What we know:
It is a single chain. The chain is an alpha/beta fold. It has a single domain (2-192), classed as Formyl transferase, N-terminal domain (Rossmann fold, 3-Layer(aba) Sandwich). Helices cover 36% and strands 22% of the residues. It has helices at 13-23, 42-49, 65-78, 95-100, 124-132, 168-191, and strands spanning 2-8, 29-36, 54-56, 83-86, 105-109, 137-144, 154-161. It has a seven-stranded mixed beta sheet with strand order 3-2-1-4-5-6-7, with helices on both faces. α1 (13-23) links the parallel β1 and β2 (29-36). α1 (13-23) packs parallel to α6 and α5 (124-132) crosses α6 (168-191). The chain is globular and about 50 Å long. The mean pLDDT is 96. 5-O-phosphono-beta-D-ribofuranosylamine (GRF) is lined by residues 10-14, 87-88, 108-110, 176, 179.
Amino acid sequence: MKKLGILVSGRGSNMVAIADACEQGDLSASVELVISNNKDSLALVSAQEKNIKTAHIGSSNYPDPDALDMAMTDALNKHHIDLVLLAGYMKKIGPKVLSSYRGRIINIHPSLLPKFGGKGMFGINVHRAVLAAGEKESGVTIHLVDGEYDQGAILAQQTVSIAPNETSESLAAKVLKVEHVLFAETIQKIVDGSIILPSD
Ligand code: GRF
């Protein structure tokens, strides 16, 4: 059974979707650890309600970036994590975590990368930019993490249509619904070998 470590910063709805998929048997994996840089993140509360181990590892309790990087690596190693999922995690991954888990760190982004990705492209900003650009469709991208924001090999994408009267809020809601399904489906494909990761 693949052990998942999930990094979160805020609401954590994608983490909940993954945990639910595991509980319902749709994803042959287990969420062993949820780490947040934000001690007040709702995701930590949701994880604790699901009896999932949590850790707060952020600049507030690890001001030195190297110490933070080491603490995160140690926490993931201690729980024998196989795959690291970034689910709304707003910080860059440190070099130690990157090297220890190279090819096994997966992020979800609410646009069709490489469009509308990169620094500052998060949350409602993404959907505002998509609409401002007059795009006819948006979507979800799941990709490997290689140290730069929203780069790395794309593992899965799914498009979402944009209605004539679409608002950034309505688009965000449509995209999030797809995220919750596509993330678990894609991780399941990694687990069952349909998607081969470079570290395999
Ligand atoms: C999602 O839109 C995800 O694509 C992006 O950040 C958001 C996190 O939402 N990386 P949640 O915290 O999983 O609800």
